Amino acid sequence: xxxxxxxxxxxxxTWGESHGKxxxxxxxxxxxxxxxxxxxxxxYLDRRKPGQSRFTTARAESDKVSIxxxxxxxxxxxTPISLAVYNQDQxxxxxxxxxxxxxxxxxxxxxxxxxxxxDYRGGGRSSGRETxxxxxxxxxxxxxxxxxxxxxxxxxxxxxxxxxxxxxxxxLNKNPLYMPDAEAAEKASAYLAKCMEGQDSSGGVIExxxxxxxxxAGDPVFEKLDANLAKALMSIGAVKGVExxxxxxxxxxxxxxxxxxxxxGDDGKITKLTNHAGGILGGISDGTDILIRAAVKPTxxxxxxxxxxxxxxxxxxxxxxxxxxxVIVPRAVVxxxxxxxxxxxxxxLCGMSAKMENVIKxxxx
Amino acid sequence: xxxxxxxxxxxxxTWGESHGKxxxxxxxxxxxxxxxxxxxxxxYLDRRKPGQSRFTTARAESDKVSIxxxxxxxxxxxTPISLAVYNQDQxxxxxxxxxxxxxxxxxxxxxxxxxxxxDYRGGGRSSGRETxxxxxxxxxxxxxxxxxxxxxxxxxxxxxxxxxxxxxxxxLNKNPLYMPDAEAAEKASAYLAKCMEGQDSSGGVIExxxxxxxxxAGDPVFEKLDANLAKALMSIGAVKGVExxxxxxxxxxxxxxxxxxxxxGDDGKITKLTNHAGGILGGISDGTDILIRAAVKPTxxxxxxxxxxxxxxxxxxxxxxxxxxxVIVPRAVVxxxxxxxxxxxxxxLCGMSAKMENVIKxxxx
Amino acid sequence: xxxxxxxxxxxxxTWGESHGKxxxxxxxxxxxxxxxxxxxxxxYLDRRKPGQSRFTTARAESDKVSIxxxxxxxxxxxTPISLAVYNQDQxxxxxxxxxxxxxxxxxxxxxxxxxxxxDYRGGGRSSGRETxxxxxxxxxxxxxxxxxxxxxxxxxxxxxxxxxxxxxxxxLNKNPLYMPDAEAAEKASAYLAKCMEGQDSSGGVIExxxxxxxxxAGDPVFEKLDANLAKALMSIGAVKGVExxxxxxxxxxxxxxxxxxxxxGDDGKITKLTNHAGGILGGISDGTDILIRAAVKPTxxxxxxxxxxxxxxxxxxxxxxxxxxxVIVPRAVVxxxxxxxxxxxxxxLCGMSAKMENVIKxxxx
Amino acid sequence: xxxxxxxxxxxxxTWGESHGKxxxxxxxxxxxxxxxxxxxxxxYLDRRKPGQSRFTTARAESDKVSIxxxxxxxxxxxTPISLAVYNQDQxxxxxxxxxxxxxxxxxxxxxxxxxxxxDYRGGGRSSGRETxxxxxxxxxxxxxxxxxxxxxxxxxxxxxxxxxxxxxxxxLNKNPLYMPDAEAAEKASAYLAKCMEGQDSSGGVIExxxxxxxxxAGDPVFEKLDANLAKALMSIGAVKGVExxxxxxxxxxxxxxxxxxxxxGDDGKITKLTNHAGGILGGISDGTDILIRAAVKPTxxxxxxxxxxxxxxxxxxxxxxxxxxxVIVPRAVVxxxxxxxxxxxxxxLCGMSAKMENVIKxxxx
Lengths: 365, 365, 365, 365
Fold this sequence. Notes:
- Four copies of one chain form a homotetramer.
- Chain A is an alpha+beta fold.
- The first copy, chain A, contains ten helices and 18 strands.
- Chain A has a single domain (5-363), classed as Chorismate synthase AroC (Chorismate synthase, AroC fold), CATH 3.60.150.
- Chain A has helices at residues 38-48, 96-100, 108-115, 130-147, 169-172, 182-197, 225-234, 255-258, 329-350, 356-363; strands spanning 5-6, 11-16, 22-28, 65-67, 71-72, 75-76, 81-86, 151-159, 162-163, 204-211, 239-244, 262-264, 270-272, 280-281, 284-285, 290-296, 305-309, 315-319.
- In chain A, the strands form six sheets. In chain A, strands 1-2-3-7-4 form a five-stranded antiparallel β-sheet, with helices on one face. A five-stranded antiparallel β-sheet of chain A has the order 9-8-10-16-11.
- In chain A, a hairpin with a 5-residue loop joins β17 (305-309) and β18 (315-319).
- The longest helix of chain A is centred in the C-terminal third of the chain and has 22 residues, at 329-350.
- Chain A is globular.
- The model of chain A has no long low-confidence stretch (mean pLDDT 94).
- Chains A and B meet through β1, α3, α7, β11 and α8 of A and β1, α3, α7, β11 and α8 of B.
- β11 (239-244) of chain A pairs antiparallel with β11 (239-244) of chain B, so a sheet runs across the interface.
């Protein structure tokens, strides 16, 4: 099935494997007239690049993006934008152990059942490198949102048992864990160090907030804005849960607590007194901040010995050595941020034809 | 935007408003040769019908389904199956209060911004009656899954603070809350009675388990099986969070705890020792039980007085009287079950062309 | 496969068989705020209704449309518009002869191979009655175009060897063949009478012209406006060829003849001196009249004896009696017109997000 | 709008402009286990390469394809196949004349209206180089068809007034016009020489025949096999008409002539006595040869002086010098062939789930 595209009007199609020639994305449906250069995209790729701290793999990749089409004189032309990042560090090593053996927590077994065989080098299509294409595509979506004054900001909410207890944007980019709480970041670092000592890994939670989203985006039934955000985040490898607003806490609360009163804001516009809903009601943005969270499981590749089987049906022990982050969360922060941006950009473009008043505004002269 | 369809090959398109002529669904892409009659669908609709306990609205609807096309001599023909449920109890009443006033926790405000106006009668397109079409469509998906030996079972995991502590299938359908734990059901009933006394409502959690799902369904990138399940569940009105397997608990765990060892099962086939993953790895089913959960917010319509604004920008008080369930969960159980079935049926049909071996099996003679 | 939908944003999904309970369409993605009532749709259905002349079947169907959803207070709400036409004249007759025998020129054999069996009553899903749903859906598209000042007009260009030699709109609706040339209509009538005498049928050509289409609609690669028009027309049963502008004649001409010079029109706007291109260049409308043609094969159901085989592999003779038009063209005129309207409406809605200037116009405040 | 993708399951997404860094295609949904190397694709690209005869432009491009992903150990893996062809001959020249002036017969004006501006270098996205991506994608579709024993063969049927009168496959690839009739090829060459002398160009007709297509592919309503073929061919730049089987001639014929009798063939299988239908009945393949034709307009770029206007609304004269083929047909033959292959491959994959019998065959064990 054609499962490598995401979005309806603003649509990305990604390609590439960990140890092939590279990874890339074609962004189709981006409006013409958006100022765009490679640096606009590179700065997002740099945030997910490996080798930036002791908590990320040492794989040596510069991850430099090239714009191959769709931009002319510094502006998008409305035609497909093709972006490629060529792989550099495709270490030639011995894959014989993992080529036949199913790593616990990985898609290896499912791939073999589905496709009959797989590109086992470095995880192939299921490698974390697949997210480069999402980030590159999402960076373009962020440019579109910026043109409308909308901002998207993701960060690490928790790592293992360590959760942030404040939001201090000034420290967010100053720690390798992207936590907006310096004290929590320190505790989380200590916790991760212990995990690494134990040849183990940790999960965590990413949070993402969207400011200045206009009301009226998203659809009331299947294409609810939160439904598409849930799909977008759950489609990131290792994500096992998604929440909007109060999320699972809402399930324990009462209507009188959970409902947000509408009020007239200081600017005379309709807004809400509280935001338990996370900025979306009935699938449609309500003009307040959108707040979402994604639960990320611990890195499945750990060097401890684990029990498993091989493709010939024999039980085996496996220890996964090599380059692996002890926690996926920090590098996935920018992936969540850019996937969120793609959903929002698409919902805004899809929503342009919601009423005849707008159709007439664009087409009737 | 055309947002009323769901699925790629097995695709449902729904229509209808709470107080229009009815609600319905067109199921396109259902294979020919599946035995199907109205009773197969009706039994699922009966599970979500109002008026079955003191915890559901008294709206008098028989919700009888008609098959209008796509079935001949008791078998699906491969052409679109059109199902309709005509509304009966469209009480003529005075909507002037809610027509101009935005109910907290509802989509009213978003609708007005998006479309310019709305069918305010009973929630219009955002009414719970919209889910009738999902259930009818999903009942057909369940027939398809049954033909492959796959079963889907959803139930209430918690209501407010009351959570099940056992899974006893024998009591599941014997309490109006669809809890598989008689003691918890009793406690939850008492809790709901208190909510109702306080003119308030409660949230809860739905859990859904899939047995006998074959390995190899779902896609590795955007069309991950869990990503589509997340979208499906989050698209149900009032759902604010979705989890697969351990979900948010995985974020607090370690790799050595969260990884499921592959083993050779008693039947000589590959299976797993544990199932923290919830039956899906890297977006592809692994042949073990699929386990998902959805967090449902409290019913937003409560008769307590609430602060809000009207469409003319004046602040107002509103008390929502009329027919409303104090908790959405029990009637949403069958909606979650049927939406899950649609995702699985679609993934299975989409996956048929994953390898040339299968293409040749079907087309080369 | 889910093949009963057409269009991307303005999308119709049709259902129904000739001898089932009815036929219908769900129109999703129609903007809110379009004035719409059943009569707006009925007048198009009336143009394709059987029994209106000696050249159409005598099947007694009133073909009355019901709007089941998506319209409130006489206006579209932006939610799916469900339209149904219930079958009335489902004559109970003996289908044993055609149930097992493949009618030449029909889809019977293909259906049996594809689906394993078929609803053979009256052609089932492949009946001409399927087009009712297209016409109903297209009537809504026409309302949308009207709101933008765009008109679509189809008519019969030729029947068998008889071609129009003038375009006189005043006679177009005054002859049952929908020919804009009274003399040709008379000759064509005589020709058809001869065909009927010989237990035979005739083909013909439909032409469709669109006035006041704005420039800039359609896409430059796969979603070319003419590519979608070609698909729309070729998807009408019995259509075997499609042309835009000069069509096949362009293949015999030279560049200096075929190119249309751009000029400044009397209103000071850019237009063209000639219109060999038929209003579309490089897949994008150029603001001049769109001109398309569809070749329709002769009605395959003829009462003459024909050679064929049955599903058990025996050779047979078949004579198809019953209700059949000697020519499909006149009743297909309105089908071509409405399918054209759907393509144009969809292209206009899809094109709204082509440039940032428009995105900002709709979303930035 | 996201208009650069084509196909539902076997889906190609193309990118690239004439004078950008290159052109390319991502093929998603290709089954795993298909043997594929660059040479399989290159041989199709070589057939459309410029500079191969005096009737094609002299632009110096080697058009070498690179497989960037989706192939491992010489086999497709089921993941997206990314193919790129980098541009080499991007002559730096003065575009000031065409940057502001609308070339007759080209999309320039439409582009400016739609997107606000355009990449005017060499036609940008509307250049003939866009078809490289189609051919590369279609070459993969042809590999898939070959695995099922299906062959697709396109050729030139006519150039200007010169039409073939025999089909001799042995000469087809021996003349630069790809005509299967040596005498006609000679006459056509002489005709083209005259066109060139007159600073003019010619149109022509491409024909494509498919052998060994199994019956039962294609859908009965909107996704008719011929409807998708019509879209595929009409989406090739310069195509203005499409026919299936007898096409427009069927419109002039009678039912008794046009109907094809079903018979039992020599191999004991159901086939047809004649093939006026062109291998497709009611949208579904009937197991006989598929026969389609496309009318191609004359190359719009001619060096004769033509009347036009510029983007500032002034009338102008324009003479288009530089590298242009006097006829598009010969190089478009392989484009028609590969686009046809994509439609067929997609229809076959989409059709796998048409009946439960097949679903059970693949999924139930």
